[in-house]
Amino acid sequence: MKKTITKAVLLASTVASAALISAPVLAQDDAGAAETRDVITVTARRREETLQDVPLSVSALSGAELERTGAIDITAVAEVTPNVTLEVSRGTNSTLTAFIRGIGQQDPVAGFEAGVGIYVDDVYFNRPQSAVLDIYDVERIEVLRGPQGTLYGRNTVGGAVKYVTSRLDPDAPTLDARINVGSYNQLDQIVSGSVPLTDTFRVGGAVANLQRDGFGDNLYTGQDNYNKDVLGYRVSAEWEPTADLFFRLAYDRVEDDSNPRGGHRLIPSAPGYTPSYPVLDDVFDTRAGLDVVRQSVEAEGLSLTAEWEINEHFTVRNILSSREDASVTPIDFDSLPEGDFDVPAIYENEQFSEEFQLLYSSERLNGVIGYYYLDASAYTVFDVLLDTTLAGLNAQTYGDVDTKTWSLFANFTYDLTDQLSLTVGGRYTEDERTSRVLRRTYLGGFSEYFGGAGVSIATTSDFLGTNTWDDFSPSISLAWQPDAENNFYATFSRGFKGGGFDPRAQTTGAPDFDQNGTVSEAEVFEFMSFDPETVNSYEIGWKYENGRYRHALAYFYMDYTDVQVPGSVGIDTDNDGVNDTFTGVTTNAGAATIQGIEYEGMLDIADDLINPGDNLNLVWAVGILDGQYDQFINAFGVDISDDVEIQNTPDMTASATLTYMTPFAGGDLTMLGTVSHRGDSTQFEVPFEALDQEAYTLFNASVVWDSADDRWQLGLHGRNLTDEEYIVAGYDFVNNTTFAPELGQAGTLTAYYGNPMTITGTIAFRY
């Protein structure tokens, strides 16, 4: 890592006095949820309201609920949330691909921003590396759908996912110890606890050691494939010198030493490729031979939150944070022993963020005014070894991207009458991005970054550019609550995602746009850069609750313009008919219309069904999405909008969980089953039947016993009980008609799969 995390400690100490005038009166963080059987309380609008009162599309899963279902990491949230995709990115263990309502970003290299914001305790993750968050020490996970930015944090066009940890108990020591034992020699050891040292000061922490053998084998290296070896921990200290002041200092770290994740080839090696490789029978097995570097992932963060309730109307809050992560990973695109298409990569990211909020609350007017600042750098270097194309041929990409952005935002709700309220918000953003793109051709193998002896023989890109953008994104919402059971609302919001520079593009491949016989610096800049994208989102909704039944029904329509479309194409530099390198081609080539319906609900079916104290209830979520590109210009300047689809987004998502709870053996026995269905989806915008995932359904079930004093919990969890095989990511570098290789000689069509059937037993003790 390029800088030490202690930078945040120094900054925290210097602003501690300033932080005294910053934070919320709310007992729960941001869009939080505290669930009972009948009421869900949220603070999605920075004040406590029931979920049914909030005129927003918000889903909330409590930590207890996630534990009861045996959820492993944050990707499990997508199984029960409509129109949401959360998947482990291709060729990695800890990089997250996130889409909400058809908007996201799956390319993890420096230079591309996320379309969905990931937050931990109000701190925005600028990069997707290390964002596949394991579920431990979590109070709740929130999913907010639609553009965000007038209430908190970074502006995002698709939505936000918030991972919120628990505040420490101010009154008594606590201890929570859990052991999970299961399939593939799973052994998880998780311990969390806290202790009040004085009436105003307390400390706490959590540690998780998560181990599992692989779902398959690497037949070439002998390593487990899809194994897990993760150590993570969090520590925090909270200080409340008075009833009106609150400080929280928190540090977290994760070390992921899992093996590289090798892909499954969907096609045999191309005719004439020696030796010949047939398709493996087990989708979790691989022949990937790239081992030039050892895979490792490290990430850590430090945050200081300060809150001051000035009086009954005004509260200030400040969130200061620093984060950094480093990943070294060998990604074998071709998944073969030879270096046909091998890509070792290094990602290093660091960020510093500052957020200040002034909250106002009164009988009729409530709202927030805020300032957000982010200073981040993202560094990526990777080799592309094409050893079978030409011995020792290596196309290297080096990218270093600095981002500086600041925003002013505000959001206020005024109760026009006891039944009618108007919410108006806005966000002004200024983004500055500076990017260094260096691409070089090597001979002799891997570069010095990966311990190789390769020598640079040509520079195909040497670019340094800076660009700035500004944007104003408004929002407005009108809510009508004719009675205590119904809430009708209509909302408009605008989202904005900054532009950038293509980290894979070759300046030497820039076209002569004005056809004057030379390629100017301006034309190179135009070729390398891409502009911001925006979305205008319209939503109407109806929330209803009558005690035993509640629902949230919403229809949304989004006008998505200047869509950033990243891609790579092979290049034949010596005109011998064989692509010996590649270039990135990223443009604002797309304009799309996306609309859909979301229906979430809960039905309390029966009480005292068999025994006194019994309860049977059903929870469901349905998402229907219809999206199409109105314009999509490919790398050759042709509009192919009729031939492309919204990627990583099924046209239908649905889930249902039936839960039965009954007194048993001096405690409570809970039995629950979940069915989760996802419709057809494409990996990329251009459909390719060989790689895309057809509709599939997952079945999960759990049996959990809690003692009457809530000290002990025993659980048995089965996930993907039908052992469904489903693709979550992949690489496509073959002609989609002839399957001829487009880069390398064997042909790269590689898939990565979701987890197979697993059975896990848990035992937990709480104090």
Outline:
This protein is mainly beta and 767 residues long.
Descriptive account of the structure:
Strand 17 (228-239) and strand 18 (245-256) form a beta hairpin. With 767 residues, this protein is mainly β. The chain has a 22-stranded antiparallel barrel. Strands 4-10-11-8-9 form a 5-stranded mixed beta sheet. Helices cover 4% and strands 54% of the residues. Residues 1-39 have low confidence and may be disordered. It has 3 helices and 42 strands. It has a single domain, classed as TonB-dependent receptor, beta-barrel domain (Maltoporin, Chain A, Beta Barrel), CATH 2.40.170.20. It is globular and about 80 Å long.
